[in-house]
Amino acid sequence: MGGFDWEVIRTSLPYLFKVGMTFTITLTVLAMAGGIVFGTLLAMMRLSHFKPLSMLAGGYVNLMRSMPLVLVIFWFYFLVPFIGAWILREPRPIPVGTFYSALITFTMFEAAYYCEIMRAGIQSIPRGQVWSAYALGLDYWRTMGHIVLPQAFRNMIPVLLTQTLILFQDTSLVYVISATDFLGAASKIANRDYRLVEMYSFVAVVYFVISFGLSLAVRRLQARIAVVR
Amino acid sequence: MYYHWNWGILFAQEPGGTGTYLHYLVVGLGWTFATALAAWAIALVLGGVIGTLRTTDRPWVVRLGNGYVELFRNIPLLVQMFLWYFVVPELLPKGVGDWIKQMPPPWGSYVPAVLCLGLYTSIRVAEQTKAGIQSLPRGQRLAGTAMGLTQLQTYRYVILPQSFRIMLPPLTSEFMNVIKNSSVALTIGLLELTGRAKSMQEFSFQVFESFAAATVIYMLTNLVVVLGMRWLERKVRVPGLIAAGTAPQVAH
Questions:
Q1: pLDDT tens across A174-201, in order?
Q2: Do B91 and A197 touch (CB under 8 A)?
Q3: How many domains does chain B have?
Q4: Distance of residue B147 Cα from the nearest chain A Cα, in angstroms
Q5: Residues contacting residue A37 through CB under 8 Å, at least 6 positions apart
Q6: B13 in a domain, yes or no?
Q7: Is the ipTM of this complex over 0.85?
Q8: What's the gap in Å between the CA of B223 and the closest CA on chain A?
Q9: Which domains does chain A have, with CATH numbers?
Q10: Does the global pTM surpass 0.95?
Q11: Which domain holds residue B147?
């Protein structure tokens, strides 16, 4: 390990974090927000008594879950420009750039996983709560919005956060569409300066520190919530 | 919006001259399975051992097992893939490193991919093993001890035969995960199913036909695995033993 070049890591730090890590974190946070909203809607659809609705949501979730993420990234990377052209009635596919392509992909893909978590969360609420809400004259949306979902979210916060940590790690796969996320940035420098060992080891250490730190925080939170409940 | 659909492309010759594009993809599925099965074998053995060790009464063994799990869980799979492909050969003695780097394709990518996926999946298996063992009533272990069995014998004859049966449903989804995760190996040049769908799209310009074909093949694979594991569950079921309920899964 005598030849380990610390200098290349030091000089590339601003690029790695300002460009790469910013991309990764922005993508993670936005995809989490979008994924949870869309996932919750999917969960409500899946639990609907209206068969076509629940079948549609179930089919979507199963489709997403049976495909590897890499393939889903490719799908959306090529599909989104066509859908954009279709919506805007343009004759040509509209270029959307790797960031928005990745954002749409991860929102749609993670929604399938968040959906399953929220479904379990909604089902964990005793049926009596729903009946009482209906008995008090609340309609479906009010029952969901004021009674069921707040509790479901609260019960599922640790699981939702754990899934978000997985999402954070999964965003590194945007490498396959040559996006400049944290790994992508490191890989560009690694190949430019031929410093693969240094850059990839550094990337691994940074990902480990962040993921491990956050997972400890999630575990703490879980313990606290468990006591309160 | 123009897109020229041409499903006939599946039966056109691929430029490498090995046959039709469909055949090209099916060979990719073969590589997907070859990678996933080899990795699965490593994962089952390593994960089974580590998961079991984490439930023993030796604190330092438990700590070592926990450290192993944390190490592999907190680094993204793609980064681990790059570590195995680019970094590990450089850290080994020069002769061994050069030998690895000079392996002819596809073995040069296949071997690192299998090792990477095997170790990555082993932590999932270890977690399931631990959960399976801990889901058994404490009395099982106590009864084993009371009957004069050693800890090793208690595991061998009482704990493990029950916990492996409980673990079967979660292992099904882990096996699906290793099949799906093997697609990450395309980044180090392994032409498995997703990798081949991507090259097919590059050669033929029929983007959506390529990806749709790969998607259908993955879905069929899913179905076969689920049915196969269900059969296995029935086959090894002990009458009177109740299967564990399925908790919400957090995994890809």
A1: 999 999 999 999 999 999 988 899 999 9
A2: yes
A3: 1
A4: 37
A5: none
A6: no
A7: yes
A8: 9
A9: 6-228 (1.10.3720.10)
A10: no
A11: 20-236
